[in-house]
Amino acid sequence: CHTSGMPTPNGKEYAQKIPREELTHLILKLLQAWKEPLSHFNQHIEHHQELPDDSLSKAKQISNMVHELETGVEKSMGIISNSLNGMAPSEATGLSISNEAIMSDSDFIHCFRRDSNKVQSYLKILKCRIMPENSC
């Protein structure tokens, strides 16, 4: 996976120890690391004539959701800390999939699922910190 080199906490208990600003920043880095690969994946699957239109539409929907989630996280970072104004574009470089190292579709989906599960877990932790009344 192209994000394997990105340091992320192993397990929920470690993620809970990370300060809110850092955890939010980590979520943003993961989302930004997937922008370009998802774009390439969408272009790749558009050329597969055997795929149903439903699959193509789902792939585009996922890309749009990642973009919307990234925008939301960037906005919350501004609310959480005025000192953090998003991630510098240079931080995302080196995490994209190079043309020489294109993954198979199944590997790509596996990696995306792994990272989306991490993002989902981190967002749940943040939600519990922000709104503890939800009995997390």
Topology of this structure?
Elements: H1 12-15, H2 20-46, H3 53-80, H4 89-92, H5 105-130
Helix pairs in contact: 2-3, 2-5
Pfam families: Hormone_1
Organism: Corythaeola cristata
Family: Belongs to the somatotropin/prolactin family.
In short:
The protein has 136 residues and is mainly α. Helices cover 65% and strands 0% of the residues. The protein is built from five helices and no strands.
Count of DSSP strands: 0
Overall mean pLDDT stands at 75
Main β-sheet description: none
The percent of residues in helical segments reads: 55-70%
Individual helix count? 5
The Rg value, from CA coordinates, equals 16 Å
- Output the structural class: mainly alpha
Tell me what portion of residues adopts beta-strand conformation: under 5%
How far do the termini sit from each other? 31 Å
Order of helices and strands: HHHHH
Shape: elongated
Unreliable stretches, pLDDT < 50, 5 or more residues? Answer: 81-100
Q: Would you write up a description of this structure?
A:
By secondary structure, this protein is an all-alpha fold. It has a domain at 9-83 and 124-131. Helices cover 65% and strands 0% of the residues. It has helices at residues 12-15, 20-46, 53-80, 89-92, 105-130. The longest helix has 28 residues, at 53-80.
